[in-house]
Each structure stands twice: as C-alpha cells, then as structure tokens.
Amino acid sequence: MIEQFHTEIQALRSLHHPNIITLYDVYITDEKIFIVMELMEGGELFDYVVQKGTLNEEEASKIVRKVTGALVYMHSKNIIHRDMKPENLLLTHKPRSMHDIEVKIIDFGLSKCMEEPVARSFLGTRGYLAPEMLQRRDYSRSVDAWALGVIVFVLLCGCLPFDDDSVTVPSDEMVRAKFVLRFPRWARNLSPSAKNLLSHLLDVNPVTRYSAEQALNHPWVRGETAPKDSLLQSPGRIKLTPGKGKVGGAGGVGGVSVSTKDHIARVRADRAKSPVASGGRPRGGAHHTPKRQLVRKTSI
C-alpha cells in the first residue's frame, strides 16, 4: 500500500492539468505520510448525474471532452492511469448547471510511468479492465481508452456494457464472445455518432482501438454531432428488466429488476471484498469526504 502512495505522489508531481486533481504538498514523519491535495467539494460525477435525473448528449459530450483531454495530457507524459472508473471522477464543487461542471481525475495509486512501450502488471477494477489485461498480455496506454469507453457507456446508458464477473479470459475466441457491444433498449435514442465512438473505444483489439487523442478528435466528443434533443435516462432512473442469468451489462440483463445505481453499489461492495489489484489500498472516505480529502495520511 505504501508503494501505491509513493506512485501517486510521483505521478501527481509531474501532472498539471485543469482536469487532474492537484497535489499541493507531502509531509513525512517517522510514522505517517500526509498528502495534501486539492479540496473536491462536489462529490462523484456519477452521483451528480444520478441526482440530476436526465441529461442530453451535448451535456454528456462536454463531460467526456474534459476527461478525455486529461487522458491525452497524461499519456503525453507517458503516464497511464490503469484504474479509470466513475468513482475516480470527482467534481470541484456542486454545479449550478451542466455548463458549470468541473470534473477531475483522481487516484493515481495504480498509475505507471511507461518507460517501456508495454506494461504487464495485472491490476485495476473489474468491469473496466481491457480484454488484453484479462488475458494477462502485455498492454499499453490503450487500456485507459477502453476504460474511458466503459465510462462513456455508463454515462449514456446507465449500466455497464459487459458482465464484470470474469477475472481472466484466456482465449481470443472467449474475448470475442464476451465483449460484444450491445445497447440496451432504453438507449434507442442514442445518436449514431455516440455509438460510433463507443464502438471504437470498446474495440477488443488494442491495435485498432481508438487512442485518447483519437477520441478527443471525434466529432461527438468535440460536440459537433452530440444532439441537444437526445434526452438520456440517468443511471438512477433506469431499471434493469427481469430476465435469465445474473444481473450484468446491457447485453444480458439480469434475473431481478434492480436500479442501475443499486447494481453499481453492489458491484462496488463486491470489489471492496475482492480487489483485482494485489495489495490494493482500501477505498474509503478520503476521496469522497471533503474534510478528509484535503489531508490524507497513512502509516509507513
């Protein structure tokens, strides 16, 4: 766990971007490390979207543009995040409107400075892991682009795109079978441009998958093809329909009717019990409670 704090400190000291949380200072004693970070008073982006109730694609596009721009900057510094997910997107303040949103990426404990073109460590969060990570193959910054695709899907459709119950997927055939992109029926109003972006980000082939830079240049992300009148259901409003099997992504919705917010809460609780990352540090109030966000400490 201490190593992850050092990793986060090293990464944040080299990153200065309006959509990445700011590290102010670090204090080290014989027993504690105090990390002083930017105060984030707005809570999680996902929770705000749930509370808002509805949004349109133009509004979603503005959020995605900020996050994608931060990823492009991060990758230009040869840093990959490796744990991109909605919980790691916080708001600086409670927005008065969607035009007032300031979102920032947090939690660089699993990040890596890419001294080599590929990485090998198996870590991250289930549901957001790229196929090549599940296959225990070498990977690059494209794993962040995959996770970005999952975040965009959750923002637009209100559910995870794929079941997240697998730890490994050994064969290419299993990968192709598992990661078939399907859109839920409540997303029928989604624009062709949004679906096009998702198909490129959620490409199982890391070679042909969009990079963050390509995503940033996509017309939907730029706001050129994101319609104002395409009203999306928020994650808090959507109900997964009863069906066979277990509760999962849009393709195979589960055996009980449950709100997506409750489903994601269940997924979070499950992750806390069995994190993918070996030695992963505990998640908690430090990132979510403003008074504890400012100064975070851990025993050496």
UniProtKB/TrEMBL annotation:
<keyword id="KW-0723">Serine/threonine-protein kinase</keyword>
<dbReference type="Pfam" id="PF00069">
    <property type="entry name" value="Pkinase"/>
</dbReference>
<keyword id="KW-0808">Transferase</keyword>
<dbReference type="InterPro" id="IPR011009">
    <property type="entry name" value="Kinase-like_dom_sf"/>
</dbReference>
<feature type="compositionally biased region" description="Basic residues">
    <location>
        <begin position="284"/>
        <end position="300"/>
    </location>
</feature>
<dbReference type="InterPro" id="IPR000719">
    <property type="entry name" value="Prot_kinase_dom"/>
</dbReference>
<dbReference type="InterPro" id="IPR008271">
    <property type="entry name" value="Ser/Thr_kinase_AS"/>
</dbReference>
<keyword id="KW-0067">ATP-binding</keyword>
<feature type="binding site">
    <location>
        <begin position="87"/>
        <end position="88"/>
    </location>
    <ligand>
        <name>ATP</name>
    </ligand>
</feature>
<keyword id="KW-0418">Kinase</keyword>
<feature type="cross-link" description="Glycyl lysine isopeptide (Lys-Gly) (interchain with G-Cter in SUMO2)">
    <location>
        <position position="85"/>
    </location>
</feature>
<feature type="domain" description="Protein kinase">
    <location>
        <begin position="1"/>
        <end position="221"/>
    </location>
</feature>
<feature type="active site" description="Proton acceptor">
    <location>
        <position position="83"/>
    </location>
</feature>
<protein>
    <recommendedName>
        <fullName>Protein kinase domain-containing protein</fullName>
    </recommendedName>
</protein>
<keyword id="KW-0547">Nucleotide-binding</keyword>
<dbReference type="GO" id="GO:0004674">
    <property type="term" value="F:protein serine/threonine kinase activity"/>
</dbReference>
<feature type="binding site">
    <location>
        <position position="107"/>
    </location>
    <ligand>
        <name>ATP</name>
    </ligand>
</feature>
<dbReference type="GO" id="GO:0005524">
    <property type="term" value="F:ATP binding"/>
</dbReference>
<feature type="region of interest" description="Disordered">
    <location>
        <begin position="268"/>
        <end position="300"/>
    </location>
</feature>
<dbReference type="InterPro" id="IPR030616">
    <property type="entry name" value="Aur-like"/>
</dbReference>
